[in-house]
Amino acid sequence: MKSLIYATGNDLKFQLAATAAKDFRVEVIQKPLDIDEIQGEDTEKIARDKTAKAFAQLNQPVITSDDSWSVTALRGFPGPYMKSLNAWLTTDDFLRLFSTLENREIILTQIIVYQDKQGQQVFRRQTKGELMHEARGHLPSGPNQEIITLDGDNGKSIAEIFNDHDLSDAAGTKVWPDFFEWLVKK
C-alpha cells in the first residue's frame, strides 16, 4: 500500500481524500503545516505555491489542494477568497448576500497539486452547483457548505453530505479518483 502526505489542516478536505484513497489502496496521512498562503485570483497559482512550500518543509512527496467558489451572477466572486469569507460571514450573512440573485449557479473548482523531486503535477475539476435558499446541515468549517448543493448530490447541501457520512459518491470527491488513478500508475 502506498502512503502519501496531504498537507492540510482542513479535516473535511482530508476526509474526502482519505475516502477516495481507499479505493486505490493508498493511505493518506494528514499533516497540518504552517504555510503562509499567497492571495490572489488564480487558484492554481495559489495551490502550486502552497505545495512548493510544503515540499520544501517536508522534502518528500506531498499533495495540497485548493478550492475556488465562483458565483456566476457575481462574475466569479468570491473565487479563492471563500475561506476568508467563511471566517467573516455567518450562514445568515451568506443567505442575505445571495437572496436577490435570480441565477443561483455556483461553480466549484478543485485543484490538487502533487509534488516530488521531479516536479509538480496538477489535477483540476469543476463541478456546477446551486446556491440554496435555506441552510441545511451544519459544518464547523464554513457556512457556505450549508447553502450549496452540487450537481449530482440529489439536492443535499455539502454539509448534509458530510453529516450523513455519504462521501464515497459525493460530487465534491470527483477530483480525487483522477489523482489517485494517476498516482498508482506512477
Can you summarize this structure?
The protein has 186 residues and is of the alpha/beta class.
Largest sheet: 7 strands, mixed
Number of strands: 7
Structural class: alpha/beta
Helix content: 25-40%
Based on the coordinates given, report the CATH architecture.
Alpha-Beta Complex
Into which percentage range does the β-strand content fall? Answer: 25-35%
Label the overall shape. globular
N-to-C terminal Cα separation, in Å? 13 Å
Report the top-level CATH class: Alpha Beta
Which parts are unreliable, with pLDDT below 50 for 5 consecutive residues or more?
none
What's the number of domains?
Answer: 1
- Helix and strand element order: EHEHEEHHEEEHH
Using only CA atoms, what is the Rg? 16 Å
Q: Tally the helices: what do you get? A: 6
Which key phrases capture this entry?
186 residues, single chain, Maf protein, alpha/beta
Descriptive notes:
The chain has one domain: Maf protein. Strand 5 and strand 6 form a beta hairpin. It is built from 6 helices and 7 strands. Strands 1, 2, 3, 4, 5, 6 and 7 form a 7-stranded mixed beta sheet that branches. The model has no long low-confidence stretch (mean pLDDT 94). The protein is globular, with a radius of gyration of 16 Å. The protein has 186 residues and is of the alpha/beta class. The longest helix is centred in the N-terminal third of the chain and has 16 residues.
Question: Would you spell out the secondary-structure blueprint of this structure?
Answer:
Elements: E1 2-6, H1 11-22, E2 26-30, H2 43-58, E3 62-71, E4 78-79, H3 82-88, H4 91-98, E5 105-116, E6 119-131, E7 148-150, H5 158-163, H6 175-185
Parallel strand pairs: 1-2, 1-3
Antiparallel strand pairs: 3-4, 3-5, 5-6, 6-7
